[in-house]
Write a structure and sequence with these properties.
This protein starts with a helix and ends with a helix. Helix 1 crosses helix 9 and helix 6 crosses helix 9. It folds into two domains: about 180 residues, Trna Endonuclease, Chain: A, domain 1; about 110 residues, Arc Repressor Mutant, subunit A, CATH 1.10.10. It contains ten helices and twelve strands. The protein is α+β, with helices and mostly antiparallel strands. The radius of gyration is 22 Å and the shape is globular. Strands 1-2-3-4-5-6-7 form a seven-stranded mixed beta sheet, sandwiched between helices.
Length: about 350
């Protein structure tokens, strides 16, 4: 049976959905790791800025966990790894492992020694094994790096996110023992409940690569319902609330509100806002494109928008699918048209 333009369109949607889902899984795994360490008595920080005692560039691992009288932990999480058959795989692998090695050196404000862990998704199993081989063959970091693997599993009525420890050991038995013989996991519904203030997690180099559909999903699925609920109790929201499910705001006012509710601790003294202005402007333009928001006043870099919240889908996955299809509709149709002609001509 010959392929249709609709088939190609759906291929493009599927590819983009995988990219957005990979980012979403990384965020969900970050939350699960945070809860795991917190249940063991650790304070958990995101994207700390660290300095080596030997000098050099600033280091920014994804995580720092601290507990009195225990070794600190630094962690890095990947939403994917390169295909081992790709020509750049070895180069990227060397760069990633060099980064992990840099985290093992003596650092200011971090215990000496300290543990370092690295997490990647199970779909990258072959690449993970290559990384472990490289780590295990390097005497300087062998047995100093803990490797974790995360994955989703689905049943008839539920999905669970699980983390396995597949290489190395934490020095704290309270961390090591629970992962020694079994996975640490949590259901999708429970993750939703504890997601709380953790909405968008990214390292500085990823800030421009955060999928726009993911940001839109978080705003529509999590943030707007939470603001609707919270506005009954918080006066800060009064000036952007216009009706039962309606908001009217200047972007700067929205940023102030989100900055109040959604921040990440980077150390015991500092925090960062999760939603920057560029993200908000880009997301609101995207919502306007699909008919879910309206710009009612152009005001240089601080436009005014009207947004009426309605429930679009039953869950995050369906919402991501909807946003991808609506936002990329015209572009994907053009690509499908060109690709369909190319494939048909190839068959002739």
């Amino acid at each position: 049976m010959s392929i249709t333009k609709e088939d190609i369109f759906n291929e493009l949607v599927k590819k983009r959905k995988n990219e957005v889902s990979n980012f979403d899984w990384k965020v969900q795994t970050s939350i699960l790791l945070c809860k795991f360490f917190e249940t063991k008595g650790y304070d958990f920080y995101f994207t700390p800025k660290l300095k080596s005692k030997e000098g050099g560039d600033e280091l920014t691992p994804d995580f720092h966990a601290h507990k009195e009288n225990k070794r600190d932990l630094l962690g890095e999480i990947k939403q994917s790894l390169s295909d081992p058959s790709g020509q750049d795989f070895d180069k990227i692998k060397e760069k990633d492992i060099s980064q992990l090695k840099s985290y093992t050196q003596d650092l200011f404000k971090i215990s000496t020694p300290h543990d370092v862990f690295f997490a990647a998704p199970q779909i990258c199993d072959e690449a993970i094994n290559k990384y472990i081989e490289k780590i295990n063959s390097n005497a300087e970091i062998k047995d100093k790096i803990i490797v974790l693997k995360y994955y989703w599993s689905s049943g008839a009525n539920h999905s669970r996110l699980s983390i396995d420890k597949i290489y190395g050991d934490f020095t704290d038995p309270d961390l090591n023992d629970p992962l020694k013989w079994k996975s640490y996991n949590m259901g999708e519904g429970d993750l939703e409940k504890i997601q709380g203030g953790y909405k968008i997690l990214y390292t500085e180099e990823e800030i421009n690569d955060t999928p726009i559909e993911y940001i839109m999903m978080i705003i529509w699925h999590n943030v707007l319902p939470e603001l609707i609920k919270t506005s009954k109790l918080d006066k800060t929201l009064e000036r952007i609330r216009m009706g039962e499910n309606s908001f009217q705001f200047y972007v700067n006012d929205l940023k102030l509100v989100l900055g109040k509710f959604y921040t990440l601790k980077t150390s015991s003294d500092d925090s960062i806002e999760q939603f920057n202005k560029e993200m908000l402007l880009k997301s609101l333009k995207a919502f306007e494109k699909i008919g879910k928001a309206k710009c009612i006043e152009q005001n240089n870099n601080n436009p005014k928008y009207n947004v009426t919240f309605t429930k679009i889908s039953k869950n995050r996955g369906e919402l991501i699918d909807y946003l991808i299809r609506e936002l990329n509709k015209e572009e994907f149709k053009k690509i499908a048209e060109i690709e369909h002609k190319r494939r048909v001509n190839k068959q002739i």
